[in-house]
Each structure stands twice: as structure tokens, then as C-alpha cells.
């Protein structure tokens, strides 16, 4: 029997589109004979876990909707467009360039921390499954 590991870190309760998607995937995989394990958010309701009727593990602390998650592609694109651009022109003062660089590094650092935390939570999920 094959195994499927599904990570849905934004699943926090029944009645959401995240729950509907996971429920469809769980039902389809079980009909095909796969053993499925689902990693969900630590704030997920107990009723949602029971409704899924598969092995679930609360493993994730952030969702794709939180700032600096870098897990949703569209949000990442929007965020990248909002970051300051580095333009070396005569119109931009050295102070403005430094402030833009500082903001850019701060945003980049927060995104990196979020991605590292998600990777650690994934490693813990796979260690427990």
C-alpha cells in the first residue's frame, strides 16, 4: 500500500476551503487504497480532525495568510513588488539608499525566519509520521 503525506498548514477548522480540499483528497486517496497522513495547524479544531477520518498531526504554527509566510506564491509576488528598489541615481540620497537597503534586509530576514520555521515543522511532522 502506498502512503501519501499531505501538509495543509492553513487548516484550522471545518467549513473552510482548506478543510474541503483536504477532505476530498483524503476520501479519494482512501478509495484508491492509499494510507494518508495529514499535517495541520496546531490551532486546528478537534471536530475537524475527527471529520477527516485519517491520521492527522498538529504540526504547524503559521498559515499562508500571516505576514512574511512566503508560503503563498501570490502573496510573495505582491510582497516582492512592494519591496524598495535599489536605484543608484543622482536623485536618491545616500540616506534614502541606506534606509531602503535596511528595510529590504529586514523584510528578507523575516521571510527567511518564517521559511526556516516551516522547514523545521515539516521535519518534525515527518519524524512523527
Structural overview:
This protein is α/β, with parallel strands linked by helices and 129 residues long. 52% of the residues lie in helices and 15% in strands. The longest helix is centred in the C-terminal third of the chain and has 35 residues, at 94-128. The radius of gyration is 20 Å and the shape is elongated.
Global mean pLDDT: 83
Task: Please report which band the strand proportion falls in: under 5%, 5-15%, 15-25%, 25-35%, 35-45% or over 45%.
Answer: 5-15%
Tally of strands: 3
**Number of continuous helical runs:** 4
What does the largest sheet look like? 3 strands, parallel
Overview features:
129 residues; alpha/beta; 3-stranded parallel sheet; 52% helix; elongated
Write the layout of secondary structure elements.
Blueprint lengths: L2 E6 L8 H15 L3 E7 L4 H7 L2 E6 L12 H10 L11 H35 L1
Parallel strand pairs: 1-2, 2-3
Brief summary of the model shown:
The chain has 129 residues and is an alpha/beta fold. It has four helices and three strands. Strands 1-2-3 form a three-stranded parallel sheet, sandwiched between helices.
Amino acid at each position: 500500500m502506498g502512503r501519501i503525506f499531505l501538509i495543509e498548514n492553513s487548516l484550522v477548522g471545518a467549513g473552510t476551503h482548506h478543510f474541503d480540499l483536504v477532505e476530498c483528497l483524503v476520501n479519494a486517496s482512501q478509495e484508491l487504497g492509499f494510507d494518508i497522513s495529514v499535517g495541520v495547524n496546531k490551532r486546528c479544531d478537534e471536530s475537524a480532525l475527527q471529520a477527516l477520518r485519517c491520521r492527522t498531526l498538529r504540526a504547524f504554527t503559521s498559515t499562508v495568510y500571516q505576514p512574511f509566510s512566503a508560503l503563498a506564491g501570490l502573496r510573495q509576488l505582491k510582497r516582492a513588488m512592494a519591496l524598495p528598489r535599489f536605484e543608484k541615481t543622482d536623485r536618491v540620497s545616500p540616506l534614502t539608499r541606506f534606509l531602503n537597503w535596511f528595510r529590504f534586509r529586514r523584510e528578507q530576514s523575516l521571510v527567511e525566519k518564517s521559511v526556516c520555521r516551516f522547514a523545521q515543522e515539516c521535519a518534525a511532522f515527518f519524524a512523527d509520521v
